[in-house]
Write the structure tokens for this entry.
Amino acid sequence: MANQSEDSSPKRRDSTVSARSSAVTSGTVEQQIEELRSQIANITAELAKSGSEMYQAGTEQAKSAASAATRQAQAVTDVIRENPGTAATVLTTTALLGVMVGFILGQTSSNHHRYWR
């Protein structure tokens, strides 16, 4: 019987040590989880802040680009009002060049397939 009590005594010690280490481990894990949650909250706040800053910078750049486009459109409108004949000539020339380029491209690509005989 003495052997049985000696055999069970180390087992009890092992289970007690195991229970203590699991309690320490679970406490450590809980602390790590809380630390990770805190870090995630900080990262989220930083991303929100930088996203807001980027949005504001983008908005300012878009406003600046829209303002520049408006100024250029106004300048073109003023030139067309002052010189309607020149504007008509430029637009007509541009349209004719576009038609010619389209015709040439159409002829070169249709050599292989003759749809219009």
